[in-house]
Amino acid sequence: MNGILKTLLSDWFSIGFLNLERITWQSSCDLLQKISEYEAVHPVRNWADIKRRVGPYRRCYVFTHNAMPREPLIVLHVALTDDISNNIQ
């Protein structure tokens, strides 16, 4: 049974079935709130903080699944810079 379940979940959540969506300040409030609630490494302090994280010099992307369209499974934050940064904060 474990092998069958593992295979089934692997098939359902393969990269081919995931949707990539860019998140901006104009994205839905519920999605922005979920992203801020799920952030474990750098906790979001307030709405101004999340607005900065999806601002003009940053990119935020989420992977969702068609079975759970408004539920971010993977969140990727990218900061755009002119040079290669020597540290990450």
Secondary-structure blueprint:
Elements: H1 2-12, E1 18-23, H2 29-38, H3 47-53, E2 58-65, E3 74-79
Antiparallel strand pairs: 1-2, 2-3
Overview of the molecule:
This protein is of the alpha+beta class. It has three helices and three strands; from the N terminus they run αβααββ. A three-stranded antiparallel beta sheet has the order 1-2-3, covered by helices on one side. A hairpin with an 8-residue loop joins strand 2 (58-65) and strand 3 (74-79). The longest helix has 11 residues, at 2-12.
Estimated radius of gyration: 16 Å
Low-confidence spans: pLDDT under 50, at least 5 residues? none
User: How much of the residues is beta strand, in percent?
Assistant: 15-25%
Mean pLDDT: 87
Quaternary organisation? single chain
* Alpha-carbon distance between the two ends: 44 Å
Tally of contiguous helical segments: 3
DSSP summary, beta strand count: 3
Could you spell the SSE succession in H and E letters? HEHHEE
Question: Pairing-aware structural class of the strands and helices?
Answer: alpha+beta
Adjacency order of strands in the biggest sheet: 1-2-3
- Characterize the overall form: globular
Helical content class: 25-40%
Please describe the biggest sheet, giving its number of strands, its sense, and whether it closes into a barrel.
3 strands, antiparallel
Notable features of this structure?
3-stranded antiparallel β-sheet, 3 strands, 89 residues, alpha+beta
